[in-house]
Write a structure and sequence with these properties.
Elements (H helix, E strand, L loop, with lengths): L1 E2 H7 L4 H11 L9 E2 L1 H33 L4 H13 L3 H20 L8 E4 L5 H8 L3 H10 L12 H8 L5 E4 L21 E2 L3 E6 L5 H9 L16 E7 L2 E7 L7 H9 L3 E7 L6 H13 L3 E6 L8 H9 L13 E4 L8 H15 L2 E2 L6 E10 L3 E10 L2 E2 L3 E4 L2 E9 L8 E2 L4 E7 L8 E4 L3 H21 L9 H6 L4 E8 L2 H13 L1 E2 L2 E10 L4 H10 L2 E5 L5 H9 L4 E4 L2 H13 L5 E18 L3 E14 L3 E6 L2 E13 L2 E2 L2 E3 L3 E6 L10 E10 L2
Parallel strand pairs: 3-4, 6-8, 6-9, 9-10, 10-11, 21-23, 21-24, 24-25
Antiparallel strand pairs: 1-2, 5-12, 7-8, 13-14, 13-20, 14-19, 15-18, 16-17, 16-20, 17-19, 22-23, 26-27, 26-33, 27-31, 27-32, 28-29, 28-33, 29-30, 29-32
Length: 697
């Protein structure tokens, strides 16, 4: 059962059209909230379906008859074929089809299996062949079924939603329109690929470890190229990705920086990886960044391999390294644990082939698979601006196939893949899962770690880009990343019981005094926790920790440089600077009590739907509108929304009721609206008015 309103939305018709159809068919409903029985729905479907089918067949007949005039020899057979197909429109058969469809829909809803596995996504202009591929059946099979329903078609003909819905029910599937599947939040989007579409893909491997323990030298040996000599000081300065072939199997490597300042970049590297190799120098053992690497690998929840490097150096002690790593839960398989260890010399190549064999062994056990027959999904490994070619982004394809010319949305950035190269700099036209590629064509520089998705059309990609930009703005307005002093009071009201702070001061005595003073503050069971205190300048590492722990950075008698300020701003981390301790403590207490200056917040006033346009040379375009929610006020700010995307943000020019200019119009009334400096209004647009109101903390 469903209401008249729900049914109207389902079949893309107005409530009035459905109510008229109900009167004609003798179905006793009067209001949009009245419920339709299953038999009522079937009867309405048949009424609509037959009407559309008859129109389509009439059009087909005209098309065939036009061709017949040009070819008199075939005219009789063509007309005969059209006539036969029109006779096949059988009301009883269609009714049975609809009953079967609704029964199967109910079965799908109650099925113990994942319902998403049974969903076929329909898009405008879908061809019979595309539908057949999604169902995994021959195109000829669907053509026969369409013929039985009275529709002539070839595999290249488009199929409308109604006919496609009737076909998929035969395969115990449910059809949904593309608009019903939200792909704008593709970080959370999970592709429902059929098992038969999945193919083996190369493993993605990240090498982590302490600086100078041999990560880049190992990759250098694997790739037979001199990466180290091109790096400043022999330390990798940016994430890069490479793919090699070993024993006819491909392996993708992500080379992450090992320096502590690049902790966040290394974390992103772990988030896209299948296997992590922890590399440890046999003559050095476990170091601070080794511990960090282990934490990141464990957080990623992926298999860990250990490579004990520099076994040929004097003082090498692999047993000592194994004992140290066992304390962190990486017990060697030779000791009865589940972590595979390999002793290597990255410099001369000893043990490297054994390490690659172990990677392929883990890959075979994990059975990494993806669907190359869909549009690509993946992550940004790194990106930069080149003065000659524009934005260059290194992408890792995680599912699907990326093709030259594909429209893509990367983070909140849009573009078309203008050029695409593999890691050897060779021009390519497509890239399959687990392949790293260098692309150009984006209109802005994305962030390392951003997700990307390719789309069928530029229109769809551009629409998703705008949605994501609006979502990002809203998130910034709500949280802005890490907590700030201005947000503390509201966070406390939401249940925050502990405020994290990082303190950096000019001398040790000041840092200790500030730490003690802050930790003594207790207001309504809320306390301050100093997660790090130290002496010296604010560093990138402080900002990374602040972001991870939602902390505020307090600097005393120090000033961060411009690059640190920008880095903190990019990560939504607040830095507060003081030179008097009691002023610092007062500010913290005031923030906790909600005594900081008030802020302004957006408040929606009303919405109206544009139903008619009136154009005048002097005034411009007047939008004849119906107020659907709240109040439309003349002095409000306004945004125009088209297909759920904001296309203009500005001010209302005037509001008219009949011929009079008025200050406001309430819900349920019609009015004329003009918008300052904007005339590109269209029927169906939504006008949303809002004000910025003062919020007292």
């Amino acid at each position: 059962m469903m209401s008249v309103k729900e049914y109207a939305q389902d079949v893309n018709k107005t409530v009035e059209e459905i109510l008229n159809a109900c009167r004609r068919l003798g179905i006793e409903v009067k209001e949009e909230e009245d419920m339709l029985e299953e038999d009522d729905i079937i009867e309405l479907d048949n009424d609509t379906y037959e009407e559309e089918l008859a129109d389509d067949l009439e059009a087909l007949a005209e098309e065939y008859n036009e061709e017949a005039k040009e070819n008199t020899n075939n005219s009789k057979s063509m007309k005969k074929q059209v006539s036969i197909n029109k006779n096949k429109v059988n009301k009883k058969e269609l009714a049975n089809r609809k009953k079967e469809m609704y029964k199967n829909k109910e079965k799908l809803k109650s099925n113990d299996l994942n319902q998403d596995d049974n969903i076929i996504v329909y898009h405008d202009g879908m061809t019979v062949n595309e539908l057949a591929n999604k169902l995994g059946v021959p195109g000829a099979e669907l053509i026969k079924k369409l013929f039985s329903l009275g529709t002539l078609a070839t595999v290249n003909n488009s199929i409308d939603f109604e006919r496609a819905e009737l076909l998929v029910v035969d395969y115990n599937k449910e059809l949904k329109k593309e608009a019903d599947v939200d792909v704008s939040n593709f970080e959370e989007y999970e592709a429902n690929d059929n098992i038969e579409d999945l193919e083996k893909r190369p493993p993605v491997v990240t090498i982590m470890g302490h600086v100078d323990h041999g990560k880049t030298t190992l990759l250098d040996t694997i790739r037979k190229t001199d990466v180290v000599s091109s790096e400043a000081g022999g330390i990798t300065q940016a994430i890069s990705a490479y793919q090699i072939t070993y024993h006819d199997e491909k392996i993708t490597f992500i080379d992450t920086p090992g320096h502590a300042a690049f902790t966040e970049m290394r974390a992103r590297g772990a988030s896209v990886t299948d296997i992590v190799i922890i590399i440890v120098a046999a003559d050095d053992g476990v170091m601070p960044q080794t511990k960090e690497a282990i934490d990141h690998a464990k957080a990623a929840g992926v298999p860990i391999l250990v490579a004990i490097n520099k076994i040929d150096k004097p003082g090498a002690n692999p047993d000592k390294v194994m004992a140290e790593l066992a304390e962190y839960g990486l017990t060697p398989d030779s000791w009865g644990g589940d972590t595979i260890y390999t002793s290597i010399s990255a410099k001369n190549g000893t043990g490297v082939e054994e390490l690659l064999d172990n990677i392929l062994l883990v890959s075979e056990m994990q059975e990494y698979r993806a669907n190359p027959s869909r549009y690509a999904l993946g992550s940004v490994i790194e990106a930069k601006l080149d003065k000659q070619v524009g934005v260059i982004a290194v992408l890792l394809i995680q599912n699907g196939t990326l093709r030259l010319g594909d429209p893509v949305v990367v983070g909140t950035t849009y573009g078309k893949v203008r050029t695409m190269k593999n890691d050897r700099g060779e021009e390519i036209t497509s890239a399959t899962p687990s392949t790293p590629v260098f692309i150009t064509g984006l209109n802005e520089i994305p962030n390392a770690g951003d997700k990307f998705m390719a789309f069928e059309s530029e229109k769809q990609a551009h629409s998703v880009e705008l949605q994501r930009k609006n979502q990002a703005k809203q998130k910034e307005n709500v949280s802005g990343g890490a907590v700030t002093l201005d947000e503390l009071f509201s966070k406390i009201n939401e249940g925050l019981k502990e405020i994290n702070v990082i303190v950096k001061a000019d001398v040790h005595g000041s840092s200790e005094a500030i730490k003690n003073s802050l930790e003594k503050i207790a207001i309504e069971d809320v306390r301050v926790k100093v997660v790090r205190s130290g002496v010296g300048a604010i560093t990138e590492s402080d900002v990374v920790l602040a972001k991870a722990s939602n902390a505020i950075i307090i600097g005393f008698n120090i000033r961060p440089n411009n690059s640190i300020r920008e880095y903190a701003k990019e990560n939504g981390v607040e830095i507060r600077l003081y030179d008097i301790i009691y002023k610092l403590v007062e500010d913290m207490e005031a923030a906790m009590k909600g005594l900081l200056e008030p802020v302004f917040e957006e408040e929606i006033q009303g919405t109206a739907e544009v139903r008619q346009l009136f154009k005048f040379s002097k005034v411009g375009t007047i939008a004849g509108s119906y107020v659907t929610e709240g109040v439309i006020k003349r002095d409000s700010k306004v945004r125009v929304i088209r297909d759920d995307v904001v296309i203009y943000d500005g001010n209302i020019g005037s509001v008219q009721r009949e011929k009079d200019s008025v200050k406001e119009v309430k819900k349920g009334l019609e009015c004329g609206i003009t918008i300052e400096n904007f005339n590109d209004i269209k029927v169906g647009d939504v006008i949303e008015t809002y004000d910025m109101v003062e919020i007292k903390r």
